[in-house]
Amino acid sequence: MTQPFVYRFSRPLVVLLCAQLLLGASGATEMPAIGSSVRWPTPAPDSRTLPTQTVPNFDAPSATHCARPVRTYETPGMPRVSGAREERRYAELSKEYRASPAVVPSPTTPKPMATPAAKSAPAGAALADAIAEAPPAPVAPVAPAPAARAAGELQAPVQAQRPANEPVTAGMVDDNADFSEYLAFHGRTQVPHRERDISVRYLLQVRDARGAVVPDAEVAVQAANGAAMWARTDSGGRAWLHPNAFDKAQSAVYEVTVRKNGRQSTVFLQRGQKNAVDVVLGGKPGAVPARARLDLVFLIDATGSMDDEIAKLKATLRTIADQVARLPSRPDTCFGLVAYRDRGDEFLVRRHDFTNDLDGFQGVLDALRAAGGGDYPEAMNEALNETVHKLSWRGNDTTRLVVLLADAPPHLDYGGPQYDDDMVAALGKGIKVFSVGASGLDKQGEYIQRQIAQYTGGRFVFLTYKDAANPASGPGTQTVHDVGNYSVQTLDKLIVRLVSEELGRLPSGG
User: Fold this and answer.
1) Between β-strands 398-406 and 431-437, what pairing exists: parallel, antiparallel or unpaired?
2) To 5 degrees, how large is the angle CA 335–CA 338–CA 343?
3) Which residues belong to any copy of the VWFA domain (predicted)?
C-alpha cells in the first residue's frame, strides 16, 4: 500500500519563499529538493469544504486484477419531492449501496486503502454523507437565461428518432492541442458551469535516465502557501498542469515532485516560464510490462432520450473489444460500466465494477434500458463521482480511460458531488475522460463535457449527421457544436482509434 509522506509546513514554506526571491532575481529554474514535504494520495476531506486544496481528495488506484464476475451496485432513485424533504429522503435511501442479487461479490476483491482515523472520508465516500454535508454549490455567473428556460426547469432540446440499423458517425476535437481556440470557446460561451481557471498551463514531461517516457508516474505540485494538485502522467509520460485551477494566490514558484517505483525527482516551476517542465527520474528503470494494462469504462446517461445511443453501443461493443484486443500492445483489458438517470427514477446510479469477462459485461450492457429523466439535466455529477472513486481501478502501469456518453448536462442545483472536484481527482488518479456529446446536447452540456475532457487530457467527441440539426437525417459530417477542423468516423472505430493512440505511446514492451 502506498504510504503518504509526513507533511511539514515550516521548511517548505521557507524554502519556497526564498525560491521565489532567488528565481525572480536570477531566472533559475533548478533548486535543491525539499525532501519529505510532498503528500501523496490518501483519504482526505472533500475539496468543497476547503478554501484551498492542500490534501488529495482521492485514493491512489491500487487494484491488482479484474479476473472476477461482474459486480453490480446501485444507488436508488426516489419520488420527486421538494426542498429539504428531498435531501433528507435521498440521504436515507443512499446510505447503503445494494448489490445486485444476481451477482455475488468476488472474495478476491482488493481491499481498499486504510483510512487514517484522523482524516475525514474521501470524496468517494457514501453519497448520502456528501449530500447531507454539502449545500448546492455556486456556479459561475452567466448571462440571463433564454426565455424558454426562464420560467422553470431546463427542457431537453427536441430530438427525433433515427432509423434503425444505421451507423453512428462522430467527429472529435483535441482542446489541448488547439488550446487557443478552446480558450476562445470558453470566452464566447456563457452558460452555468463550475469554474476552474485553466487559462495558464504548463506541460510536464517525465523521462527516465535513458530518455524513455515514464507513463503513470505520480505527480505532486505544491505552492508555498500549501495549495497543491496531483496528477499521473499519461501513456506518453505527460501531464498538463494548471496552477490557477488550484492556487487562487497565483504563487510565483511551485515545487513539482514526481515518483514511481521507488524513484523520485523534484524540480521547480516558475510562473511565466516558456519551456516545458522536464523531469528525469534517475536510478534503474522498472521493468516494462509485457502487455499493456487497460481499464476502460463506459459512463452512460441511461435516460429515455438515450435509447438510440445505448442500442448502438450494445451492437458494437463486441467489435470494439475485438479490435482493441488485436492492437499491437495486446492489452490486458478490464471493462466497467456506470449508468445513471436522475433522482426521480428507478435508480440514480448503477455501476458494474471492472471485469475481464466480456460475455458477462455484454450481458449487463444488453440488460440496460433507457428510461426516465423528465427534466433536462441528469445525475452526471453523482455518476462521475462513483466512476472515479468507487470502481476498482488497477494500480501502477495501467492506462485508465472513461468514455462518457451523454445528451444533457449535470444538475448543478443538487448538493453533494460536483463534476469539477471529480475531474480534478480523475487527473490525480490518471483517468482520462473522452466525452461524447450525443444528439440533443445543448451549449451547457457541451461546455461541461469539454471542461472534463480537457482537464483530464482526453478529447471531446460529438455525433454527426447529414443535417446537423436533425439526428433523424442519418449519418453525416455535420454538427451543431462549436467546433472546427475535425474528421468523421463511425463511433466504434473512433473509440478504438483513441484507445490505440493512448496505448501506442507506451514504451516498447508495454
Assistant:
1) parallel
2) 175
3) 295-498
DSSP H or E run through 82: none
- The predicted structure's pLDDT at residue 427: 98
Q: Which residues of 278-315 are buried (b: 16+ CB within 10 A; e: fewer)?
A: ebbbeeebeeebeebbbbbbbbbbbbbbbbbbbbbbee
Q: What is the pLDDT of residue 373?
A: 81
Cα–Cα nearest to 410, from 398, 418, 422: 418
Residue 364: closest CA among 137, 70, 132, 18: 70
From 434, 392, 485, 489, select the one nearest 67 (Cα to Cα): 392
Residue 28 predicted with pLDDT over 60 = no
pTM: 0.80
Beta-carbon contacts of residue 23 (< 8 Å; ≥ 6 apart): 29, 31, 252, 253, 268, 270
Residue 508: per-residue pLDDT: 79
Share of the chain above pLDDT 70, in %: 73
> In the chain, what are the domains?
161-194+288-505 (3.40.50.410), 202-281 (2.60.40.1120)
Mean pLDDT in residue range 245-253:
96
